[in-house]
Amino acid sequence: MSPAPPPTAPAASRQPANLHYRRVLLKLSGEALMSRAGYGIDPEVLHAIAAELKEVRALGCELAIVIGGGNIFRGLAGSTHGMDRASADYMGMLATVINALALQDALERAGVMTRVLSAISMQQVAEPYIRRRAVRHLEKGRVVIFAAGTGNPFFTTDTAASLRAVEISARVILKATNVDGIYDADPKTSPGARKFDELSHMDVLSRHLKVMDSTAISLCMDNSIPIIVFDLHATGNIKRVVCGEPIGTIVH
Question: Which domains does the chain have, with CATH numbers?
């Protein structure tokens, strides 16, 4: 009798050779979806992002997304004009739901199965956020889009990204921005700004670098979650990051 073949790893634990991070959380700002008019949602931008995410998903990467709402409404901006801060923040959370539904539509038209999970209950358009349900969706190969931030006022979508990353055991947070990493000054206004290839979480906090808010950075530091900051608009960058290419700036 021939010996039994060695047991194979479960599908969820197998990882393609070219995939460095199996489960990631991508943080997208609402501004990433903006049209040239400076507000709203650009269908062409959505289509381009969906095409990139489809490639990443095809690698076998388990992909969760937290999306902001700044292209529609910012709670902090509303509060500076006299609006009650809590009410303004709830309006900002609703803006993230609009963006999540738009991204879901673009991904599903590209043939990618998705689920939107909202921290604010609205069962006609999204599932309620339940941690175990989110993990199960990821294990089944669905892209999970987290909407409505944490569901609480006074917390940013950066903090929501850190919280969700911890809850789903993501290997890394991918912070997609308009620049190619973290600088010691704004590279758009300071031509001599120096780019960092690598930083610690404490470096970010002590230097007051505007990567994510301090609550989000502290949560990542306490739970040993690295953050990679990179340029969203360079085609193929999301795929390069999940495959382990050294682009942007890593905070760990």
Answer: 23-248 (3.40.1160.10)
